[in-house]
């Protein structure tokens, strides 16, 4: 008896914790605080399916309680057999028709939403650049993200910049293993494969963006290796005029001129050992196969280092000193121990100076 009571208390405690934690979502990450048209549609489907499930549970629970009370064994009626109803056509029709109706209520809006989300004709329009349609080629890598704007000739990494209150179209592909592109608060998710492109669109709501502080978190939603949970990126939605200004800045960006002597030493180190993998211009002309590491053109403007660390010089030095301790299995792990502290200081100074905005 005591053991059962103890288990019940433990179950109640976990139940209360789950209820409390369910309300802890942040607007920049929570799927329960939709921040765009796609997220709104998905959230509505979640509410609809949950409502149907709760309704079924409540009805079944009521019937169960009624049957237990109504047909319980009473004193003096131990041998009485209740009226048998097996083979009742009426009951069979009821419990067949009701689930069909519930499935139709769920299936119709789900199918309509699926076809609406799959409509990407605008991104394949030959005149899309004249119509202002924004298309982003997303390439997932172990364990970082590349974002290419083919109509603007811009390539960036880790920070995705998009206009608000309009459809933004995405081509998704992976360069190594399967990943999954997901911005929880805005919508998704969709796989990135190595052998074919997936296409879809999202809308970033301006009011929701302001509420989230101007930044949303993106995630990899497909188990892809030891640093899968650390494969984050940041999304910066901007009003259209600010987005256009950002595009012009990126298009006009030139190789930075370094004047600080320490940063100049870091530039020499970078050009000797890092330039083979990384680029420092957003107008990188290398073919896709040659982009083996993130583009660092606007590294000094980014929100995070390695997608997860706060953007400051100390964390950058930590990453350069031992990448494996930050993201196990990443492709920079082989640099461990090859740089002296003086070289790390110089390289960090140079990288933090790479700014476009």
Q: What are the defining features of this structure?
A:
357 residues; alpha+beta; Immunoglobulin-like; 9 helices; 39% helix; 18% strand; elongated; heme binding; signal; cytochrome-c oxidase activity; electron transport; EC 7.1.1.9
CATH architecture label name of the largest domain: Sandwich
Mean pLDDT across every amino acid position? 88
- Rg over CA atoms: 28 Å
Structural class: alpha+beta
- Helical fraction: 25-40%
Detail the poorly predicted runs.
none
The H-and-E topology, N to C, reads as HHHEEEEEEEEHEEHHEEHHH
Oligomer: single chain
Instruction: Please tell me what the overall shape is.
Output: elongated
- Give me the CATH fold name of the largest domain: Immunoglobulin-like
| Number of separate helices | 9
Within CATH, the superfamily of the largest domain carries the name: Cupredoxins -  blue copper proteins
Query: How far apart are the termini?
Result: 68 Å
Describe this protein's structure:
The chain is an alpha+beta fold. It folds into 2 domains: 27-63 and 88-239, Immunoglobulin-like; 261-352, Cupredoxins -  blue copper proteins (Immunoglobulin-like). Helices cover 39% and strands 18% of the residues. The chain contains 9 helices and 12 strands. The protein has a 5-stranded mixed beta sheet with strand order 3-2-1-5-8. Strand 2 and strand 3 form a beta hairpin. Helix 6 packs across helix 9 (341-352) and helix 7 crosses helix 9. The radius of gyration is 28 Å and the shape is elongated. The mean pLDDT is 88.
């Amino acid at each position: 008896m005591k053991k059962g009571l103890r288990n019940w208390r433990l179950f109640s405690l976990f139940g209360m914790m789950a209820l409390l934690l369910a309300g802890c979502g942040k607007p920049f990450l929570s799927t329960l605080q939709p921040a765009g048209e796609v997220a709104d549609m998905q959230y509505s489907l979640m509410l609809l399916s949950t409502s149907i499930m709760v309704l079924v549970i409540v009805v079944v629970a009521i019937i169960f309680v009624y049957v237990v009370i109504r047909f319980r064994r009473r004193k003096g009626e131990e041998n009485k057999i209740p009226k048998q109803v097996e083979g009742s056509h009426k009951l069979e029709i009821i419990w067949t028709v009701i689930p069909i109706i519930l499935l139709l209520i769920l299936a119709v809006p789900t199918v309509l939403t699926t076809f609406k989300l799959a409509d990407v004709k605008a991104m394949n329009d030959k005149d899309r650049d004249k119509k202002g349609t924004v298309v982003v080629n997303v390439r997932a890598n172990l364990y970082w993200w590349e974002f290419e704007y083919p109509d603007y000739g811009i390539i960036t990494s880790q920070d995705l910049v998009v206009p608000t209150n309009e459809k933004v179209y995405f081509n998704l592909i992976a360069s190594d293993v399967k990943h999954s592109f997901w911005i929880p608060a805005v919508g998704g998710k969709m796989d990135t494969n190595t052998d074919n492109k997936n296409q879809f669109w999202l809308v970033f709501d301006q009011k929701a963006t302001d509420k989230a502080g101007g930044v949303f978190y993106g995630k990899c939603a497909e188990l892809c290796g030891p640093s899968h949970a650390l494969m984050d990126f940041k999304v910066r939605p901007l009003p259209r005029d600010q987005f256009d200004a950002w595009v012009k800045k990126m298009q006009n960006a030139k190789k930075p001129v370094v004047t600080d002597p320490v940063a100049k030493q870091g530039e020499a180190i970078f050009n000797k050992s890092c330039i083979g993998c990384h680029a420092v211009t957003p107008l990188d002309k290398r073919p896709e196969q040659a982009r083996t590491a993130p583009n660092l053109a606007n590294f000094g403007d980014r929100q995070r280092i390695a997608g997860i660390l706060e953007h400051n010089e100390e964390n950058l030095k930590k990453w350069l000193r031992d990448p494996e301790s930050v993201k196990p299995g990443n492709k920079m792990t082989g640099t461990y121990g090859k740089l002296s502290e003086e070289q790390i200081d110089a390289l960090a100074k140079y990288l933090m100076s790479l700014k476009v905005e």
